[in-house]
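Onboarding guide, step 5: your first structure request.
Type a short instruction followed by the sequence, for example:

Predict the 3D structure of this protein.
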Amino acid sequence: MRTSNPVFGNRFQRYAQAGYGAGQEAMTVEGTATKTAILLLCVLIGGVIVWYFFAAGNYGLVYSLMLIGLIGGFVVALITMFKPTWAAVTSPAYGVLEGLILGGISAIFELAYPGIMFQAVALTFGVFALVLVLYRFRVLRATPRFVKGIVAATGAIMIVYIVGIILSLFGVNVVFFSLSSNPISIGFSVLVVAIAALNFVLDFGFIEEGANQGAPKHMEWYAAFGLLVTLVWLYLEILRLLAKLRSR
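The system replies with structure tokens like these:
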């Protein structure tokens, strides 16, 4: 299995194989689903905290909380990736920190486009549920050709975003990276949303493989952390796409 998700990959497989036949309780797909729901609750808690201060007009504190979420989330994510055995503690912390960022970003978009946050949340979970059903009934499968295509496409998107960020620092407006509402920009966002959604197929494949190999129980938290990373990416891309469509 290959994946574009930095959380999964050789590290996930190595821990899965290490736990195989070790006589300890193994991870399950159902257990991973439960842990994912808990992490989503943590994200909601972080988002509610930011929205409370945003509604009170304390914008300075909102930006401070977003900065804490950005830096803290990055640090906690790295710790989780290098210490999967700590995932039961670090993953919920990551969820709350991500909630601080997403809550602030969503509030900013909500000011410009009322109702956009609820639309983005509904579409995110709708897309996630659709991909899960299609994967469950093997309509979508992580075949070698499919995996290579998604990994390559995701890598190309990341390169475009990195180049866009660098150019924006020099005042250059890149149509793909901006919130421009022209057809090219909207088409690119639709493509990115599709690629982000299809990354779930690779994530689901890794989780199933870990369960089949008898990975240790703590890997449920780590797998849920990996799913949350993809979910956050998908939500942000849907939010950007809706903003482009609403601005037209």
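Each response can be followed by summary notes, for example: The mean pLDDT is 86.
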